[in-house]
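Researcher: Here's the sequence for the chain we discussed earlier.
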Amino acid sequence: MSDKAPVGVLHEGFSSPGAVAPPWDSVLRQLDRAETFWLSSVRPDRRPHVTPLLGLWAEWAFWFCTGPGERKAGNLASNGACVVTTGRNGLDGLDVVIEGTAAASSAQPELDAFADGLEQKYGWRMESPGGTWAGLGDGIRRGEVLVYRVVPDVVFAFEKGTAFSQTRWTAEGR
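Model: Thanks. This is the structure I predict for it:
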């Protein structure tokens, strides 16, 4: 896929009069700055499951990891369809929703890049012995945790503030 930014399509029916689609760069900033993401997946019995997690956006995909015995790993093994969200818990700012399919990744260069990216983004929480996720980067590099790549079918941005907007991006627009 090219490095060209996708074109957002504003949904006027769910946007304030005169609203414009936010630039793709603002969506990327939100994904880069967000510390917490929410993954929604489907259990084998078709009940929903939602959980917070750490993650990174890179190469037109959202990346995250989980332990092999965790509920989300079991869900994604039987159905990779999922939704990833992040944003602000308030009526201003930008919320981002990624709808797509999660696939496990075990290629060493991808594991190394993901671990490096998490350590850079989350700093001492991953590198310090007292950090919440101390040693996770090394566990990723050794393949001890599952790493997933969610390639979006669609990305939505919900802008809130003086004007409200709903914008949609797809891979076809890239």
